[in-house]
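Hey all, sorry for the wall of text incoming. These are the two entities for the joint prediction.
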Amino acid sequence: MSMTTAALAAPSAATRLRMRRRRSWVSALALTLAGGTLALLVISWLANGGIAAIGAPGGAALTFGRLTGLVAADLLLMQVLLMARIPPLERAWGQATLTRTHRLVGMASFWLMLAHIVLIVAGYTQAGTLSLPGQIWDLVTTYPGMLLAVAGTLALIAVVGSSLRAARRRLRYESWHLIHLYAYLGVGLVLPHQLWTGADFLAAPGMTLFWWSVWSAAAGAIVLFRLALPLGRSLLHRLVVESVTREASGVQSVVLRGSRMARLRPAPGQYFQWRFLTGPGWTRSHPYSVSAVPGRDRMRITMSTEGDEGSRLTRLRPGTRVLIEGPYGSLTADRRMHRDVLLLAAGLGVTPLRSLAEHIAAEGGSARHPRPSVIMLHRISRPQEALFTAEWQALAGLHGIDARALVGPRGPGSSWMPAAIGNPARYLRATVPGLPERDVFLCGPQDWMRRARTTLLALGVSRRAIHRESFGV
Amino acid sequence: MKRILAAFAGTVAALVLLFSYRTSLGDAVATLPGSAAHVASGAQSGAAPTTAGTEPPPRAGTPAPSASATVVNGATEQTPYGPLQVQVTLAGGRITQVTVLQHPDAARRSQEINAFALPQLRSETLSAQSAGIDAVSGATYTTEGYQASLQSALDAVHHAA
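and here's what came out:
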């Protein structure tokens, strides 16, 4: 079976410009809305006493306790929205940026929530007659919705604690993900005390409308885009495993066949979250990029079989049903600023770039629109890790793609290339003609991409022409 | 899968327990019964003695003529934390006394706020002789409820006059 069939025509320069404009428009709208909600909160806080309330007993702690609580609640919903896979937002920012922002906004919300708790307890203690422990007990046991809020806070602490870098490194992805689902519970459990004990929520009809809008937007987006849409797509396309091929030691490709695939149309370079219905373990989903589109109703993905799930994945058989979420990802041809590209991959990061390379190289070909130059550099440690060797050769003949494997252990110091290559900057300058007039697509481990990016920026590649995707969270 | 089911069952059990607690359905647990009397303790002779909470609050807007003064109840205002109602005593066209018939007291914090805010609002009313008084900082909702109830009482007096 030929693996070299581009499914979609690549977008023209004019289309790329229009799509770029639409993305910046969506981005500006999202930022304005987010900033607007924060401004609205501060205004309503000021209108409800705000600064003026400082004079009352315990007033300073209480009034800033209210403000931190309101902002924390707003940010809490925003970080839910950031992860809701809202299609226009995904296209505008890409999942890497969304994930980073989600982490940032989530952490900000968390620390503000802790400040809110400390300030409110301090303020109530100052204003009241109870001792500190007595006051805490009174707050938790007698105020409406407060016991639920404590439970919600504990859930959020578990989520944040398991997401701190040190903890995240030690946890399996599945354990981390299971704990992370408690974030939804936490967000839900802190709502009642906001309604029943925090009067700012229902202080004015406008504010009531505002909070219910944000809450239903967050809940609705999750239900629609994270549950209904993926489930609907899985049912519509009914994907099944068609064949499994060993690509290299510890790497296999799986070809999937589905129905009505023209309506799915993943852009080359995108990925899905896959759930293979193999029996036990089916609940775990994995992000795999589409490495080729062999024919109308098929997709090919390429995966490692060496991880925790390796043995289960090697047992995939033709006919296994598959659930999908996606397509996601912004490593796509339409994000380019320039015609020509340099593709840089480390290890299995080559999979999305494999289909992207073919897609971009098939563009143009007329006198007015010359073929793009596509250079693909694949960083691997050992020769047996090379992937798609025969396909790269075929693509070199068909489309003139220049694909090279850079083999060997890592070079000294901060080098992100094999020692044999020497200085990465010097190597790129010699190998890649017109580098500053190219877009660069990167896929590999975070740290590797960060170091590659530093070199590229130093070589004159513009920030906006560097596109990254990583599957680490 | 077993671990997921165990986590799910544990979570549901914890939620059932959480929601079986009173405050989890929106109620507050009263902590200091009878604190309303403490707030109304500034009452002077001439005002009809009332004790909030122990008997149904009187209807608003019916001036009750007494020997030397007019006593009138304001409307019951709903604040986010509970109802608030005042009673005004007028003599010779002047406000001589304000008594708070009921105020939010379910949560300890409401009691504390009202303990400092209500006496302040009362003395402001007596010097301003109207409902146009300054808000007490830290007691926005109490002030709003108090002003509205007071204004309705004063309006009732004007209609009767």
